[in-house]
């Protein structure tokens, strides 16, 4: 009897710690936050599951990992519908993002204002037409086909867009735009959903064979995953901190992860969908139709087989009474009258839409120009005092909410008045411009340089404590001394004050500390850093 009890306890122990593997479709980032939090907060453990989360290795195919049983669950795109039509054994459990983050990004100074302007331009997209179908469909809707532009193999290197090696780059709305903004580079986004091509993204899937053999496990994994995603979006700060410390193979900053989270949350929850992971069959059918038009699939698929039976999609029960039928008939007549009115006036409407589109482009351009004038210094291109005031408030707020420390460098040019008095303001302006270029090349993409006065500057170092910040400050000082000269080849130097953010800091307190440290640097002979 005792042996029997021990046996059952052993079996329960094994079942309570069943190991499974989840294959991601990219490198670790907030895009997969729900899975990390379900693991780290114990939601999977409470469900009796031990999940091994694997990031993508280049050349790997997520579907193949399921077929070869190297993974139990994986994450794919809407193109899984194409694979399903080819007879692949696929069941989609949930779609994390109701709107796909996949967009096309161009630099504002490229002169590309409309989709049509991409003709004969270099476009960097992945070679897999299935994966970029929404972008290709968007281009096709404006009569821009693959023969009309130069297709470049995707390098996944944003510097290729910045340095004009390509004109347009397929990007994630939550990634590249934020990085461009951090660098002060203006950009334009062409989003397929704006043009009517709204695909799901990050579809969690497995096989029907796995579900048949592991029905209870699959259901438990599904529920715990939903719980993990809800936590990740309800607790962005804590989640970003965990990813930053434990799942950060891309070395993203904490602030970048927070920015990524805020974008992704809007893609996961929409006006119509308030539950994580919904897969609506009508929307899936629309995606199938797009694939058919593009020649990527021919046969329909059984969407009831494709979507997991426990997916929390919206179900509408239509039970019409006699009065409902009468009411709906009246509504139908009204709709018919409205439709007739629209058809009669369609030409007028089209002319109005064309005018509106032109006006919209002009307004967007003016808005971007105004933003640049508002937040960037016209002479040097550094961020200005208004931008500084907004960003320091943001940094202090994040520091208090998430205990996220940063470093603050205040510096000015030594004897700058003599430069202006001796050589004139044109030389002084040249010194300021070259100084900004030198410092900008020294700091990271997620750090910020501000010109807050004539020759006065502030640098905010994200998630950087005092010791590493000393190295950055000293390198800045030495680079300026070695590279920046006035007319007589005399070196231009700077004096710096460095401080780390403290609990209960205010905009005034942190600035005052740094200002006093600059004074010390000046008193001790200039061209040095005090901290």
Give, in spatial order, the strands making up the sheet with the most strands.
2-1-3-10-4
The count of strands amounts to: 15
Q: If classified by CATH, what would the architecture of the largest domain be?
A: 3-Layer(aba) Sandwich
CA-CA gap between termini? 73 Å
CATH class wording of the largest domain: Alpha Beta
How would you state the average pLDDT, rounded?
86
Poorly predicted segments: 314-322
**Proportion in helices:** 40-55%
Helical run tally: 21
Beta-strand percentage range = 5-15%
**Sheet bearing the most strands, described?**
5 strands, mixed
Q: Which structural category fits the helices and strands?
A: alpha/beta
Which outline best applies? Answer: globular
User: How many separate domains?
Assistant: 4
CATH superfamily of the largest domain: Periplasmic binding protein-like II
Rounded to the nearest angstrom, the radius of gyration is 28 Å
Q: Give me the CATH fold name of the largest domain.
A: D-Maltodextrin-Binding Protein, domain 2
Structure overview:
It is a single chain. Helix 2 (33-40) crosses helix 10 (215-234), helix 18 packs across helix 19 and helix 19 (425-442) crosses helix 20 (466-483). A 5-stranded mixed sheet has the order 2-1-3-10-4. With 531 residues, the chain is an alpha/beta fold. It contains 21 helices and 15 strands. The protein folds into 4 domains: 2-98 and 200-306, D-Maltodextrin-Binding Protein, domain 2, CATH 3.40.190; 102-195, D-Maltodextrin-Binding Protein, domain 2; 322-373; 385-530, 2-Layer Sandwich (Alpha-Beta Plaits). 35% of the residues are buried. It has helices at 2-16, 33-40, 43-46, 62-67, 80-85, 133-141, 159-162, 176-182, 208-213, 215-234, 236-246, 254-268, 281-293, 303-306, 322-344, 346-375, 385-402, 416-423, 425-442, 466-483, 507-523, and strands spanning 18-23, 49-54, 73-76, 91-97, 102-107, 122-125, 150-153, 168-172, 187-190, 201-206, 407-413, 448-451, 456-461, 494-500, 529-530. A hairpin with a 4-residue loop joins strand 12 (448-451) and strand 13.
């Amino acid at each position: 009897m005792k042996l029997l009890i021990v046996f059952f306890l052993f079996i329960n122990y094994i079942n309570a710690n069943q190991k499974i593997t989840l294959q991601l479709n990219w490198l670790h980032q907030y895009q997969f936050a729900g899975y990390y939090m379900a693991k780290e907060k114990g939601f999977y453990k409470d469900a009796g599951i031990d999940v091994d989360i694997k990031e993508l290795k280049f050349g790997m195919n997520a579907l193949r990992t399921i077929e070869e049983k190297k993974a139990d669950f994986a994450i794919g795109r809407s193109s899984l519908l194409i694979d399903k039509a080819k007879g692949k054994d696929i069941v989609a459990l949930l779609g994390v993002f109701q709107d796909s983050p996949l967009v096309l990004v161009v630099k504002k100074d490229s002169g590309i204002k409309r989709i049509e302007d991409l003709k004969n331009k270099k476009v960097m997209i992945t070679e897999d037409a299935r994966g970029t179908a929404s972008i290709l469909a968007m281009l096709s809707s404006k009569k821009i086909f693959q023969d009309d532009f130069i297709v470049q193999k995707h390098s996944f290197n944003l510097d290729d867009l910045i340095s004009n090696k390509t004109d347009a780059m397929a990007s994630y709305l939550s990634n590249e735009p934020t990085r461009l903004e951090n660098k002060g580079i203006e950009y334009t986004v062409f989003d397929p959903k704006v043009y009517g091509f709204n695909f799901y993204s990050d579809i969690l899937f497995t096989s029907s064979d796995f579900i048949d053999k592991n029905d209870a496990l699959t259901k438990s994994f599904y529920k715990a995953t939903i719980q993990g995603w809800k936590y990740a979006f309800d607790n962005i700060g804590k989640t970003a901190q965990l990813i930053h410390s434990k799942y950060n193979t891309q070395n993203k900053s904490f602030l970048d992860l927070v920015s990524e989270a805020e974008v992704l949350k809007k893609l996961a929850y929409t006006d119509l969908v308030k539950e994580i992971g919904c897969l609506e069959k009508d929307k899936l059918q629309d995606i199938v139709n797009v694939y058919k038009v593009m020649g990527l699939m021919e046969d329909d698929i059984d969407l009831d087989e494709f979507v997991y039976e426990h997916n929390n999609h919206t179900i509408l029960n239509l039970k019409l009474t006699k009065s409902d039928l009468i009411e709906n008939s009246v509504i139908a007549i009204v709709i018919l009258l409205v439709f007739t009115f629209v058809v009669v006036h369609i030409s007028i409407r089209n002319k109005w839409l064309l005018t509106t589109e032109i006006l919209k482009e002009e307004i967007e351009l003016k808005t971007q120009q105004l933003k640049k004038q508002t937040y960037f210094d016209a002479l040097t291109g550094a961020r200005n005092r208004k931008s500084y005031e907004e960003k320091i408030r943001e940094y202090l707020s994040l520091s208090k909410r998430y205990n996220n420390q940063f470093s603050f460098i205040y510096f000015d040019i030594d004897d700058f008045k003599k430069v202006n008095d001796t050589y004139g303001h044109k030389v002084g302006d040249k010194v300021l411009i070259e100084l900004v270029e030198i410092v900008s090349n020294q700091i990271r993409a997620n750090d910020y340089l501000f010109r807050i006065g004539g020759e006065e500057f502030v640098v905010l170092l994200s998630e950087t404590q005092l010791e590493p910040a000393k190295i950055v400050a000293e390198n800045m000082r030495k680079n300026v001394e070695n590279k920046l000269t006035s007319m007589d080849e005399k070196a231009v130097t700077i004096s710096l004050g460095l401080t780390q953010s403290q609990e209960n800091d205010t905009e005034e307190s942190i600035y005052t500390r740094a200002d006093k440290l600059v004074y010390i640097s000046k008193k001790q002979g200039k061209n040095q850093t005090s901290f």
